[in-house]
Amino acid sequence: MKTKRTWCVPLDSRYYYEPVSRQKKAMNGAESLIRSFTAAGVNVCFANPGTSEMHLVQAVDAVPEMRAVLSLFEGVCTGAADGYGRMTGIPATTLLHLGPGLGNGIANLHNARRASTPVINLIGNHALYHVDYDAPLTSDIDTLAKNVSSWVKGDSTASSLASDGMLALQFALTAKPGSAGQISTMIIPADACWNEAGAAASYLDVPERRTVDDKVITEVAQLLDDNSMILINSDGLSIEARIAANRISEKTGCRVSMTPFPSRVDGGAGLPGCERLPYFPEQVMAALNGVEKLILAGADAPVSFFAYPNTPSILVPDNCAVVRLSESEEDTTQALESLADFLSVAGEGYSINQLADLELPTGELSIRTISAAIAALIPEGTIICGDSGGGGAAFGPCQTARPNTWLNLTGGSIGQGGPVAVGAAVACPDRPVLALLGDGASMYTNQSFWTQAREGLNVTTVIFNNSKYGILETEYLRLGVNEVGERAADLFDLSRPAIDFVQLGNSMGVPGQAVETAEQFVVALERSLSESGPSLIEARL
Question: Percentage of the chain with pLDDT > 70?
Fold first, then answer.
C-alpha cells in the first residue's frame, strides 16, 4: 500500500495477515467483517452493544486481534473513537444498538465530524425481513446517521458485509470534498450478521489528498505582507505545515493564526508557535483588526459561534479580502511548503516556542493558578483533552511548556473531554493523558470514569467545580442585562444539590481528591501525573 504524508499515522501494511486460502471454515457475515477490519489495521472497538449486535459480539470474541472496550453510555463510545482517531489517524469502530444507541452517541459524533476524525460506526439493526413489523426499537436510523456521517450503508447482506466494511474504511480515510469529516456508518441488519459469508475482504486504497495548483501558489505569494494573515486548519495544523507557515511569516511579515477550535495541536517548547483566534466575535474582530488580506489554508472564514444582535455572522473586516490557498480536503501541508519554497525562504528560518521558566503558583485556587500549575508540571508528551469550563485557559501557557498535544472541543457539544481522553489513552498507552472538564460538562459523560478504571487507563481528570454553568451565565449577561435574575440564575446553578465528584469517581473505581488552594492543586496534580492509572482532582473554585 502506498503511504501518504499526513499529520496522522497512516495504515501500516504489517497488519495484513491471514490470506483467504488459510481460512479453514465458513464464516458468518459478522466474522467476515471483523476479520476484514483487523486485517486492514482497524483493531479497536468502543462498544455498548445490545441484542441486535450479539453476532458482532460473537465475532469480536472469535477475533482476538480486535480489542473491545466497553462503555456504559454510547456518548463515551463515540467520543473515545474521536480521541483514538485524532491520535492515530486510524479509525476505531463503535458498536451501538439501533437508532436509540446511535442517538445517544450523536453529540460526540458531531464533535468528531467537526474535527475531521476518521470513525466507523457499526449500528445493529433488525433483520431486514423484520423491519416492516415496526418492533419497539425500530426507527429511521439512516436519517439519524446522515447528520453526522459522510457515508452511510444500511442494506448489506452477509455476502457483501465485509466488502462494505472496506468501503466504510476507505471513505473514513478519504478527505471528501464538501464534507466536514470522515465518519462512516454501517447500519447492519441482523440477518447479514448471522448468515453465511464467503471470506474476509481486502483493503481498498485511499486516494491521495489533492495538491494545490502552482498558479494558486504564485497568486497568494504576491499578496503576502505585514497586512495579511494566514489562517490554518485541517492538515495545516500539522507540525510540518506550521513550520512552513512560520517560514513564510519570517520572510513576508504576515501573521499566522489557527482557527478558534483546532482539532489537534502538537505544541510546547521546541515546536512552531502559532496564535489562535479567540471565541467571542468582538475578540475575533479585534484580532483581525488591520488585516487586509486573509489567506485561508485548510480553513474557512471565521464565523461567530452564535448569532448576536447587531453583530455580523462572518467575522472579517469590511476592507479585508479573503483568498483561499487550500480547501480542507486538499494537501495544505504541501501548499504551505510550496509557498515557502516559492518565496525562497531558508529552511531554518522560522520561530519556535521557547521553554518558559514556569513557577509553581501559590495562594488562591483560580483558573489562572490552575493553568500555571498545569503548564509547569505536565511531563513531555502529555495529551490534554479539553471541554467546556476553564481548562481552555491553559492552552496558551502550555505552548511554552514541555512538548504536548491538545485535543480541543471542536463542535461545541460539551461532554467530550472524558470520552476523548479514554480514546487517547487507548491509542497512546505510554503517554500521560490530562482531561480538563467543567463540572457541568463532566456530568454528561461521567461514565467515562468507569471505562478508565476498567481498562486501567493513564488519565488524570481535573474538574473545574464552580457549581454552575459558567459560560451560560456569561452569555446571559451578554444580552445586555445588568444582573442575572433569581429564576434565570437557577437554570445555571449546579449547587442544589452539590455534586461530590470525589465520591462519584470513587464509586466507579477512580480515586480522587478535592483541592481548594493552589498549593493543594500542585501537590495533587504532581502526584497524579507521576502515578499510572486513572485519578481525579476536583478543583473547588
Answer: 94
pLDDT at 345: 79
Arithmetic mean of pLDDT, 485-494: 93
Q: How many other CB atoms sit within 10 Å of the CB of residue 473? A: 17
Cα–Cα nearest to 296, from 323, 334, 335:
323
Host H or E run for residue 124: strand 119-125
What pLDDT score does 468 carry? 94
268: left (phi over 0), alpha (psi -120 to 50) or beta: left
pLDDT in tens, 332-384: 999 999 999 999 876 666 789 999 998 999 999 999 999 999 999 999 999 99
Q: Which cell numbers in the block locate residue 132?
A: 416492516
Q: Which amino acid is at 183?
A: I
Please report where in the chains the cell 481528591 appears, as a residue.
513
Closest by Cα among 80, 58, 327 to 210: 327
Q: What residues does each domain of the chain span?
A: 13-197, 214-342, 367-540
Report residue 65 as a C-alpha cell. 486481534
Alpha-carbon distance of 319 to 293, in angstroms, equals 9
The residue to which cell 505569494 is assigned: 221
Answer yes or no: are the C-beta atoms of 76 and 82 closer than 8 Å. no
Is 212 in contact with 326 (CB distance < 8 Å)?
yes
Measuring CA to CA, which residue among 159, 77, 90 is closest to residue 121?
77
Topology at the third CATH level for domain 367-540: Rossmann fold (3.40.50)
What are the grid coordinates assigned to 527, written together? 502526584
SS3 content of the chain, % helix, strand, coil (to 5): 40, 20, 40
Q: Is the pLDDT of residue 14 over 70?
A: no
In 54-116 the beta strands, taken as DSSP E runs, fall at 67-70, 92-97
Separation between Cα atoms, residue 212 and residue 127, nearest integer Å: 46
Per the structure block, which three cell numbers stand in for 435? 482531561
CATH code at 13-197: 3.40.50.970
The pLDDT of residue 103 is above 60: yes
Mean local confidence (pLDDT), 438-442: 97
Report how far residue 142's alpha carbon sits from residue 185's, in angstroms, rounded to the nearest whole number.
9
Just give the CATH number of 214-342. 3.40.50.1220
Prior bond of 207 cis (ω within 30°): no
